[in-house]
Amino acid sequence: MKGSTLAEFINDLRTMGGPEKEFTFRDKRYFLETTFHEDTQMSEMYIFEIRDNNPVIARFFGKDFDECTDQFEEAKIFDGQTIYDVEDEIEVLFG
């Protein structure tokens, strides 16, 4: 991972729900954001590709940032692979 270490990236998600992160993977730009929903008392983490219609590629829900991050770590959203499989292809641009 360029621009951050994978440990720092994951620790940020667990402790602060981000902060918001912008990163590239295989020539595509992505944005990760976490929101807390007061009405349901649930956290939501979502990742979208930065392009014309900003399609959401993944959404995770949990009681806290840890639960969302656990789901993110296991998700095969990077061309069928987890972030651990492709970390050397990711560059963090912001966050």
Write the layout of secondary structure elements.
Layout: H1 6-16, E1 21-25, E2 28-37, E3 42-49, E4 56-62, H2 65-74, H3 83-86, E5 90-94
Antiparallel strand pairs: 1-2, 1-5, 2-3, 3-4
Helix pairs in contact: 1-2
Structure report:
There is one protein chain. This protein is α+β, with helices and mostly antiparallel strands and 95 residues long. It is 26% helix and 37% strand. It has 3 helices and 5 strands. It has helices at residues 6-16, 65-74, 83-86; strands spanning 21-25, 28-37, 42-49, 56-62, 90-94. The chain has a 5-stranded antiparallel beta sheet, covered by helices on one side. A hairpin with a 2-residue loop joins strand 1 and strand 2 (28-37). Helix 1 packs antiparallel against helix 2 (65-74). The longest helix has 11 residues, at 6-16. The radius of gyration is 13 Å and the shape is globular. It starts with 5 loop residues before the first helix and ends with a strand. The model has no long low-confidence stretch (mean pLDDT 95).
